[in-house]
Amino acid sequence: MPLPLINDYKTAIANAKGRFATLEFEPRLDARRSPVFLAGNFAGVFRVVTRDGEHLAIKCFTREVPDLPRRYSAVAKFCRSAQCPYVVPLQFLSAEVFVTSRVAPHADYAVVTMPWIDGRSIGAVAEILCQRGNAAALAGLTRAWSRLCLDLLQRGIAHGDLKHDNILVSQDGRLKLIDYDSMYLPELKGLPSTMLGGINFQHPKRDVRHFDAAIDHFSMLVILLSLRALTFGPELFRCHHNGENLILTKDDFTRPEGSDLLKVLAVSPDFHVRDWTSHLIKSAKAPSIGIPGMDVILKTAAKIDATPALPPKKALFSFFS
């Protein structure tokens, strides 16, 4: 069934009284007095203020998500009960907003609500730190990213679309994940992926059949390697960031032998950058999208500082023996 357009939802949000079954709010408006929103592939997210002064994000779907009620009911339960510091509590309201549309039936449509998170994306924060040449803060951001990834792995879950603008750094410096359309939870096992994630962060062989706790491995490593590389080469952001990535792109994964950036990273003064570059190339060529030993890589990353790392002593001994 076709869903309303984003402009249909804008009209409903702007004239919310009588349109929403349970929610009462005032929309945040831009300079043109139009509701503030962010548009994505599957939905638009509007910023509103409730009668109690709480700032909410209301997600309205513009493309059909298979098994949407089952998926978001499970995600809402997890976010509410799992005590995971990296997710935001949300509500799935199955028939909340009445929308009139020229392309979809006049009907009540589902929305997802969650607290609005004030902060910058991890990509925006990385750019600022690179401009300032703040290696210590970039190393701290890398450690924080490692801890987030370890938390997901230990829970046996996956976000499904880890990328630079789905990870926020809140005003108190904490990392938060947003956009849970493709989240994997054990109780959703057997379903297909709803989407394949940002192409500049995903394994080149990922397809809809991949939907398990390993679907985040490659994007975890892409972001980890990018942040570590920027710690010692902040100019890489200016040279390789295109708005849809941190520094790496799909071409680096599909043709690693022709990647100038990977050649630079392979001779980094930092052992971890060299080692993780090797892991990334090996993974991109592998038939499986999971990365063996990803937890070991992340545990190492959770302890790093802004000093270029030397190879482990065992590796040195093997080299000279």
TrEMBL record:
Q: Which InterPro entries match?
A: Kinase-like_dom_sf, Prot_kinase_dom, Ser/Thr_kinase_AS
| Pfam families, alphabetized | Pkinase
Highest taxon, organism lineage = Bacteria
* A molecular function (GO) term: protein kinase activity
Signal peptide, first to last residue: none
Q: Where is the Protein kinase domain?
A: 31-321
Instruction: Give the protein name, as stated in the record.
Output: Protein kinase domain-containing protein
Q: What is the lineage of its organism?
A: Bacteria, Pseudomonadati, Pseudomonadota, Alphaproteobacteria, Rhodospirillales
